[in-house]
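FAQ
Q: What does a multi-component entry look like?
A: The components come first, one per line:
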Amino acid sequence: DQQVKQNSPSLSVQEGRISILNCDYTNSMFDYFLWYKKYPAEGPTFLISISSIKDKNEDGRFTVFLNKSAKHLSLHIVPSQPGDSAVYFCAASDSGGGADGLTFGKGTHLIIQP
Amino acid sequence: DTEVTQTPKHLVMGMTNKKSLKCEQHMGHRAMYWYKQKAKKPPELMFVYSYEKLSINESVPSRFSPECPNSSLLNLHLHALQPEDSALYLCASSQVQLSGANVLTFGAGSRLTVL
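Then the predicted structure of the entire assembly, as tokens:
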């Protein structure tokens, strides 16, 4: 049973508009959530994270929102740029620090159209 | 140096072969990870080494044998694999910290095909 779910395999957004990628989770023990971006033939690269005690974290064009009661988070990219076309993975961990690894969703393929 | 380097990028092997995947980082990270990713699936954690000691083994079959010779290197020894083991194998590293998000830095992966 998947603990981190990304239910949209793909998303197409026009350049300059907002991209919203969604993620749901089932494990209430998760306390950190991360977003990774992956280009073909490259490894995932870290984008942004959020602690479960916060509901928003912003870094430039990227903002992550967390709704803990709904076990839902979203990544907003605004404005979307052609270089944002990639697969985006939502990931979660259930401990602060340490080295316990991350649990990943299946990913959403974001396509930015000119 | 902010990279995790994985070799080889591609590997084709028969079911009776013995081969190894290698991973190297020079960021001073003391935790290293192996993940397996099949097409249209999320990366799945296989092994975690913390301070060169195996700390997590996610019930991985013994035909996969990890090794951490030192804090910069992580190997995955492969023997008697099955065709269903064909996948992208991702290595990652991270700091071991007392709190905060555990941010993993990934390599580009080794694409394994078992014939």
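Q: Is there any commentary attached?
A: Sometimes. For this entry: The first strand of chain B starts at residue 4 and ends at 7.
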